[in-house]
Task: structure prediction
Amino acid sequence: MTDRNVTSAAAVAQTGAGRRELLGAGLAAGAALIGGPRRARAAGRTEITFTSAKFFGKETIAEVVDAYNQSQGKVHVTYVELPPPSASTEVHQALVQQLVRKSGTPDVFTQDVVWIAEMAGAGWALPLDEYFPAASRTEYFPGTIAACTYQEKLTALPWFVDSGMLYYRTDLLEAAGAKVPETWDDLVKTASALQQGGKAKFGYLWQAKQAEVLVCDAVEVIASNSGSILAADGKSGTLNSDKCAEAIQFLYDTINKSKISPSDVLSWDEEPSRAPFTGGDAAFLRNWSYVYSISQDPKGSSVVGKVGVAPLPAFAGGKSAACLGGYQYGVNASSKNREASIDFLTWMSSPATQLHFALQLGIAPTRPSVYEDAQLGKEQPFMKRLKSVFTGATPRPVTAKYAQVTLAIQSGVSNALVSGNVKAALEAANARINTILA
Amino acid sequence: MLESTRSLPDRVGSVAAIGGAAVRRPRKRRPDATPWLLLLPVGISLGAVSVFPILNGVWLSLRNTSLVTQEDDFVGLLNYRLLMGDALFWNAWRHTIIFTVVSTALETLIGLGMALLLYEYFVGRSIVRAAMLVPWAMPTVVTSKMFGWLFDGQHGVVNWMLRSIGLIRDNINWYGSVDHALGTIIVADVWKTAPFMALLLLAGLQTIPNSLIEALRIDGGTAWQAFWYVRLPMLASTLLIAGMFRALDAFRVFDLVYVLTGGGPADSTETLSTLSYKTLFSTLQFGYGSTLSTAMFITEALMAAGFVVFIARQVRLAR
Result:
């Protein structure tokens, strides 16, 4: 029954718009976790708990966990569900409140890719290097391993991946005889031509609402210009560099110079930018993988069969970069059942389980080899095509203080895009980042 | 509303009378204990849900407590010193004050107009009175989503209307422009809360004796004079009390901003509540976040004190 308690507390946390109540609900969730009955199952099994944000498709995570429990006789996992990733703030809070207690519960957890450094920096996440040696890490997309590594230690294990990608209208490009753009210059040219020719109301749609998604869009342009937001050691900001300024200037120009993007993107996050594209009003769109299935649903889309997906363009001399999203596994450093936790983790991250997650929950594998599976190609042909996109996945700035740094980036980049005073706005944000990291 | 506040001194009097009666009773071992014992449950519950959290918040504001860095030390007034130099705080503070003043003023004026209209008799008045409250009864998140669509930059009805009547040529980007975002949020708040003001003021209007208006009519006074020399002065304390309620509530604006803009673009709609929420719950800096909340609390207390001074003067004048 533990599961249900937590879910209902979490539901309260989501619906109650109150702020202080959230804390209470989080505590209740934590209390349910600790106080929950631990029924003894088959004698001699090691009991561990696993907690994750809620994902579901044809199956639920609970069913996958049950499959593990039945597959062997040594370990029994109790699954505790947190709110869905759309309530990311509450998931984060519930997780931190449990880990900060160092009670060893939960033994294994899943975390948004941007929390990994924080969990590791606080000493809550067990370093996994000895269990997953360098050789076995090459089996994952390099971007996901980079995101799971903090101060040269592997502190998380990849679960699933999502990333930014370029959606385009195959019919429009074909009619114009244009190829899929590989550089931002090409994108601007093709988008302007289509827009001026009256083929599309908007050339290129992206997201600049002052929210996490703005950081993702910024990371993509900056990394595709060989720049970065933080220095390699993660101890100071480099947002004031020329590379960053050029990249953000490009975003500003899409609205104000080439005008391939409407100024409305300044208040748009994912869904508002998705709607005009699936409505047939836009030539190009930057978004996550969820858009594809909507675009192919005749009930809500007027572009069925006319949508292609490619890696995002890059600046001349740069490499395409896709902002890495997704949830990854972690092991509680205070866990009293390390061996059992690692056994469970190994099973969860195995190619077979990743394939199962892909087929039943629509969650994209972090192991490139899984994409070669024939059944995946048949049942999820779109996911198979994303392999090339995920290969370029780039983590957001890796720092234990990411939660503060991201707010500074959001504010700074939003300022730059609104005022057009790019250099000064980024300079100010960079100073703020340096204060946070100091 | 008006009646209950008017009778406040009387009630205080009657409480004193009860106390007095207890004292006057013939000698008993503990003559004063009973009223205090009766007050105890209220005292404890108020203390637990109201006084303790406030004191705890103030205590936290003097510490550098952060779940993420796991620091938890007493730092004295350091947080307050940081707050004074924090441009984001002052930015949010300014927006909150602007929002509070403008929305309260508009809501009071529009609410007063609505109350005066609904006070007059016309066919279907009771239905209109009930229907008037619909915006106020709606959850704010629903209101926010609705205004999100109304003021949508591309397909919003507001842009379409303004374009149709020729007031604008190009669509206005309501939520994506620093010049319009805060104003649009104020419009949404006024739509939602003006009916609440109207309700309070209507209650106030109904306590004004009709004989005064009749007397004025007999003297040949106009409708305007009835409003200006009779109703408005009689309504003054209700106006102040309603204004105080509204201002204190508006100061905590959260839902509209959170749903519509998230504080952007370029921090132009960041308010103290959204900033505190981000600091407390996204970054889990409980210490500094509490400093922000305490600063909010102090500002609100000052505002309330300002209103109370005026209300007290009104009450004195009325006697």
Q: What stands out?
A: Residues 1-22 of chain B have pLDDT under 50 and may be disordered. DSSP finds 15 helices and no strands in chain B. Residues 2 and 238 of chain B are 6 Å apart (CA to CA).
